[in-house]
Amino acid sequence: MDQLRLALRTLCRAPGFTAAAVLVLAIGVGGSTAVFSVLRSVVLRPLGLPHPEELVRLYERPAGTEARWSFSGPDYFDVSREGGVLASVAGVVAAQQTLTGRGPPVQVRVARVTVSFFSTLQVRPAFGRGPGEGEDVAGGPRTAVLTDSFWRREFGGDRGVLGRTLALDGRTYEIGGVMPADFHFPLLRQAEVLLPMAMEGREKEFRGMYWVTSVARLTPGASVRDAQAELDVSAPRIHAQIGEHAGWRMEAQPLLDDLIGPVRPALTALFAAVLLVLLIACANVASLLLARGMARQRELAIRAALGAGRGALVRHLLVEAMMLATLGGLLAVLAAPWVLGVLLSLAPSDMPRLEEVHIEGAVLAFALVASMGAGLLAGLAPALQLTAPQLMEVLRNGSAGTGRWRARRALVVAETALAFVLAAGAGLMIRTLSGLLEVPSGLAAPQRVLVADLDLPPSRYPSERILALAQNLMERLQAEPGTRSVALMTSVPLDRRARPEWGFDVEGGEAYPPGQSAKAEILWATPGYLATMGIPLVHGRDLAWSDVRTTPHVVLVNEAFVRRLIQQGEPLGRRITHLLGPGNDPWTIAGVIGDVHTKGLDRAPGPLMVVPLMQYTVPGLRVAMRAASGDPMSFLPALRADVGALDPDLPLSAARPLSQIVNESVNEQRFQMTLLTVFAVLALALAALGIYGVMAYSVAQQAREIGIRMALGADSSLVLRRVVGGGVRLALAGVGLGIVGALAGTRLLSSLVYQVSTTDPLTLAATAGVLVGSALLASWVPARRATRVDPAVSLRAE
Questions:
Q1: Is the separation of the CB atoms in 655 and 492 below 8 Å?
Q2: Integer distance in angstroms from the first to the last C-alpha of the chain?
Q3: What angle do CA 35, 39, 43 make, to 5 degrees?
């Protein structure tokens, strides 16, 4: 206790030093705590379900490809009846539906789930019940289960909600239960209402639609390898029901690994980056402690002369460092919720498990360990240096030699090297993002296009009514002032939502082995799609309103389709078969359109087909309007009014410019770049502060020598170059070490960068230039101070 009181009094006597050290440590501990909370919730923490290690995700894998698809309805039923190692199989489909009867119509996120969903996950509502046996069949009872957040928002937390009704997409559901507040399941895509999956028609019978996300629970003690062995036996028997599926496989993947696999490298790299910031903060505080200790050399020497052993002196200095770390940790914990909020606001919205991220006990424990570790790292080296056996020389000679001066320079070099590694990583991500934004999307002037979602409930909108609505709505919108073109479509290029890929055969195309076929992304659209999206027609013809069910079926294909699937000969007139099930073939290629990036700017355009909505009608549409000039969002009031005039129960949602969709397609890279850049700027600032501190101390120690040199004829420019050169030499030493570290450390970013090597010479050279420039600026102020030393004062002192 005496040691604590003494350390506290000592720190209070130097408030500026104490505030600087606490702030530096708080930055390092706070940043690492916030990133760790995300890493723990998303990657490290098991799913919040009973026995999560028993859960697996099931996939179809077409023969000869690396693609993984969800199950078709019939395949789901076949696998769920197999039994064996797969004790229970559940199906999930996330969607949006229109909620009516509770004010203006709005779209809500729903999930259609099989009755087995609750038993497979081993979860149950907090009160009420879930769908019972037979409620996920066509014509069965309709029971809705609400999430806790939806229940509180829409019903004010009223427990009398059970038995009341909910109207979704024109169908009425009875509310059966409410899920617990802590229930989260990433495959629900943040659904607010769970509905029974009542398959009927094509959903239940057609094996060409792969739309059911399938999850299974293994029997206790079984492994994923056991499940895979069982699927390897059952899959050929199931796929034999369609000759084209010979050679297809079914795969089982651990559910958590499947969910977080795509984001694990990015979060790991960010956590490594923030730990580097923490190390730099420790080095910076160690340098401050060493500098302050050098000013206290006489005090420490007197303590030693009075009988204090080296151990007692080391403990005293370590207590001071740990007290600084404790204060820094407390400040970091207080700021952590705010930092975490900023972090989550920058994160891509489709990152899994974001809703589970919060400050919890494990995160606070990490903050405590990080604080204590930082205090130990920052305080140990200065304590050992300042209490070295040469301490008594201070009483005899007034100085303890140059060892501590070398230690401070070594710390600055280490800071600079670590800052170089971080800055190089940030530079790579900056180049990645700038490179992606320079990739031509294939869309002309997307900033002039308004896009909005228009969900048409299948129960109220059969095919004929969809077509009538499409024609009437497009006529109204085309008549709005300033409208250049209008279209309806099922998907928008670069929208991050999933898009279907379909198998088919092309007349005169490549002959595929049994079980394989050509594959392409498919979308449905009305005439005006190309003009509205700004996609060029290369040759052939565009879609026309005369393309109806009774006329020969046509499709548009892109240039990537021609390159990969036709290769030789004229594509126009080629016929496509086995595309949309029996009774819909053939489809004739009527036109070739320009390539457009659909899945990401970092992914080359793949084969794409555009099917006329008038010949094969589907719900779930998006409406797009291209403005002749100006802001397309000015169309939104007119769009809402025109939709409301045709059907007041149809909501519009997610209205935004097409350019925003293009911009959001690189949100993941922007998130990584922003955080790495922030960490790099902090590291550079700390490194520059370290160089400034060393050079300022050097000038203070050499003031008399500098004054004498100037009295003997040295001009100020020579003194300036000497001091600045000392700072630059420290920076160059750090850059040299940093290059070695960057060559090894930036490999963590190899899966994240685009069209740039992790050892890119330009990035490394630019990073070195920034660091050396920072050193120049950091050394300039002490250098200018050195040139103002009065030679007369120095001579009188001699």
A1: no
A2: 46
A3: 170
Other C-beta atoms closer than 10 Å to the C-beta of 478 total 13
Contact 604, 546 (CB under 8 A): no
DSSP 527-565: TTHHHHHT--EEEE----TT--TTSPPEEEEEHHHIIII
Q: Tokens in use for 432?
A: 């990645």
What's the whole-model pTM score?
Answer: 0.80
Query: Helix axis angle, 403-437 relative to 716-745, nearest 10°?
Result: 60
Q: How far is the C-alpha of 277 from the C-alpha of 680, rounded, in Å?
A: 8
Residue 429 makes CB contacts below 8 A (sequence gap 6+) with: 669, 672, 673, 676, 677, 749, 752, 753
pLDDT band at 353 (very low <50, low <70, confident <90, very high): confident
Q: What percent of the chain has pLDDT over 70?
A: 84
**3-state secondary structure at position 162:** coil
What is the distance between the alpha carbons of residues 731 and 448, in angstroms, rounded to a whole number? 48
CA atoms of 422 and 419, how far apart (whole Å):
5
Rounded CA separation 118/125 (Å): 9
Residue with the bigger pLDDT between 696 and 229: it is: 229
Place of tokens 């403005």: 627
326-335, 366-375, 446-455, 489-498, range with the lowest pLDDT: 489-498
Q: What is the DSSP string of 216-270?
A: EEEPTT--HHHHHHHHHHHHHHHHTTSGGGTT-EEEEEEHHHHHHTTTHHHHHHH
318: Cβ contacts below 8 Å, ≥ 6 apart: 375, 376, 379, 380, 383
Reported as a pLDDT band with limits 50, 70 and 90, residue 788 is low
How far, rounded to the nearest angstrom, does the alpha carbon of residue 26 sit from its chain's CA centroid?
25
The pLDDT score that the predictor gives to residue 797 is 47
pLDDT at residue 197 above 50? yes
Q: Which of 110, 113, 92 is nearest to 213 (CA)?
A: 92
Task: Using alpha carbons, select from 275, 267, 446 the residue that is nearest to residue 346.
Answer: 267
- The greatest distance separating any two alpha carbons of the chain, rounded to the nearest whole angstrom, comes to 108
User: Mean of the per-residue pLDDT values for the chain?
Assistant: 83
Contacts of 172 (CB under 8 A, 6+ apart): 142, 165, 166
Rounded to whole angstroms, the Cα distance separating 297 from 608 reads 75
Please compute the mean of the pLDDT values over residues 382-406 and round it to a whole number. Answer: 57
Give the H or E element holding residue 502.
strand 501-506
Structure token digits, residue 357:
């991220």
Q: Which SS3 state, helix, strand or coil, does residue 42 take?
A: helix
Residue 735 has pLDDT above 70, yes or no: yes
Alpha helix ranges (H) inside 594-666: 636-646, 658-664
Q: What is the DSSP annotation of 358-407?
A: ---HHHHHHHHHHHHHHHHHHHHHHHHHHTSGGGGHHHHHS---SHHHHH
Task: Give the burial class of 662: count Cβ atoms within 10 A of its Cβ; 0-12 exposed, 13-18 middle, 19 or more buried.
Answer: buried
Which candidate, 322, 321, 320, 299, places its Cα nearest to that of 387? 299
Q: How many CB atoms lie within 10 A of CB 56?
A: 28
Cα angle 255, 257, 260; round to 5 = 105
Structure tokens at 231: 């699927």
